[in-house]
Design goal:
The termini are far apart. The mean pLDDT is 85. The protein is of the alpha+beta class. GO terms for molecular function: efflux transmembrane transporter activity. It holds the Pfam family BSH_YknX. It comes from Chlorobaculum tepidum (strain ATCC 49652 / DSM 12025 / NBRC 103806 / TLS) (Chlorobium tepidum).
Length: 314
């Protein structure tokens, strides 16, 4: 009986091992990719990472920083809003500076009154001098004349201080320098901001208080070509490029705009890391026409292939 039991256990163990080996050998069918990866449409195209941005004649998006520090009192705009040049964007608490400006204005009135008094005193002494030089000493007349000059200088200084205080007061309201679109607001009412910008609690760094793009909502794409591939770039008049939108199968033709002729250290576009690395890249800017049925935003990452027009696969 005992031998039969051992034989039964051994047979069960063998069958269990064979079954486990069979099922472990089976591999689940892999899921198809969510979208087709970008493919090279050129015979010898150059690949580059790209980032969509607001189209500008030079530079990138317009980053706005305050020239003074303070607590945000009011925000007049919202993301996506079209604004005109001179339109207020954001106001800081200016109570202290407003008091300083009023004090400077009052100083002008004091200086004007003082000047009027010394001028009247000088006029009396001068009139007396003209009637009889012996009635007023020369020292008294010179002292009065000096008091008039000092009063004029004090008044001029008070006016300059008031103009400076009023100009500084105007900096507590941020305004749009040009027509454009508000792309991002990186602060909120009650937050403290400075000339460094606003503190981002997620990244632990300072960011522009407001980011603006152009008024027409036109977009361009900036790509970064590795320095070892620069010599393979076609001439601008022969350059052709294709942009692939991630998550779709769409490919958008690009038009060369300009180089930024300064090879800089590569940064990680997805996290904007700025530590120095050995890899350096050349920025190349392209423009494109956005398809009507496609939604694109500044900051969106794309894949770009650059090739020659003659080498393009039809």
């Amino acid at each position: 009986m005992r031998n039969k039991l051992l034989i039964g256990i051994a047979i069960f163990g063998i069958l269990l091992g064979l079954g486990a080996a069979f099922f472990m050998k089976l591999r689940p069918k892999s899921e198809p990719p969510a979208f087709t990866p970008a493919s090279n449409p050129y015979r010898s195209g150059i690949y580059a990472n790209g980032i969509i941005e607001s189209a500008q004649k030079n530079g990138t998006n317009v980053n706005i920083y305050p020239e003074v520090s303070g607590t945000v009192l009011k925000i007049f705009v919202h993301e996506g809003q079209q604004v005109k040049a001179g339109e207020p964007l954001l106001a800081l608490d200016d109570a202290v500076q407003r008091s300083t400006t009023e004090s400077a204005k009052a100083s002008i009135a004091v200086a004007e009154a003082t000047l009027a008094n010394v001028q009247a005193q000088y006029a009396k002494l001068k009139a007396s001098w003209n009637l009889d030089p012996r009635s007023v000493s020369k020292d008294a007349l010179d002292t009065a004349a000096n008091a008039v000059r000092a009063g004029k200088a004090s008044l001029e200084l008070a006016r300059k201080q008031y103009d400076a205080a009023r100009a500084l007061l105007g900096k507590y309201t941020l305004t749009a320098r040009e027509d454009g679109t508000v792309l991002a607001i990186n602060t909120s009412v009650g937050s403290y901001i400075s000339s460094q910008g606003g503190y981002n609690s997620y990244t632990g760094g300072y960011v522009p208080v407001i980011v603006m793009g152009n008024a027409e909502n036109a977009l361009q794409v900036r790509c970064y070509v590795d320095e070892i591939l620069i010599q393979r770039l076609p001439k601008p008049d022969r350059m052709s490029a294709i942009m692939s939108i991630r998550g779709t199968t769409l490919k958008i033709p690009l038009t060369f705009e300009r180089f930024e002729p300064n090879v800089t250290p590569k940064i990680e576009l997805s996290s904007q890391r700025t530590e120095r690395v050995d890899v350096r890249v050349l920025p190349v800017i392209f423009s494109f026409k956005k398809p009507a049925n496609l939604t694109l935003y500044p900051g969106q990452l794309v894949d770009i292939y650059i090739g020659e027009q003659a080498a393009k696969n039809q």
